[in-house]
Amino acid sequence: MSDSSSRKRGGTFELRVSDDDADVAYLRLPSHPGTSSCKMARSVRLRDLMGDYDGPDVVLDFDLRGVLVGIEVLG
Questions:
Q1: Is the pLDDT of residue 55 over 60?
Q2: What are 13-38's pLDDT values in tens digits?
Q3: Interstrand relation of 57-62 and 68-74 (parallel, antiparallel or unpaired)
């Protein structure tokens, strides 16, 4: 995945777009543990939270403490 990063509010935001599929992107939030082998404790689809949502598939990743650490967008 290619990436771009910016510093904001004391952390790093990192956007990665899949090299294989330009319709897939992942935004790592400053709270993300940053390891490639990291497993999320819970992933929630935006569509499951908002039944009438009619947009790209968005998945919210949470760590063991329930903190949002990443957002995946599937175009």
A1: yes
A2: 999 999 999 999 999 999 887 765 56
A3: antiparallel
Domains contained in the chain, number: 1
CA distance 1 to 7: 19
Q: How far apart are CA 31 and CA 64, in angstroms?
A: 12
Give the domain range for residue 67.
2-74
> What's the helix, strand, coil split of the chain in %, to 5?
5, 50, 45
Statement: residue 6 has pLDDT above 90: no
Q: How far is CA 72 from CA 51, 62, 67, in A?
A: 18, 12, 15
pLDDT digits (tens, 9 = 90+) for 56-68: 999 999 988 899 9
CA-nearest of 12, 54, 50, 3 to 32 is 12
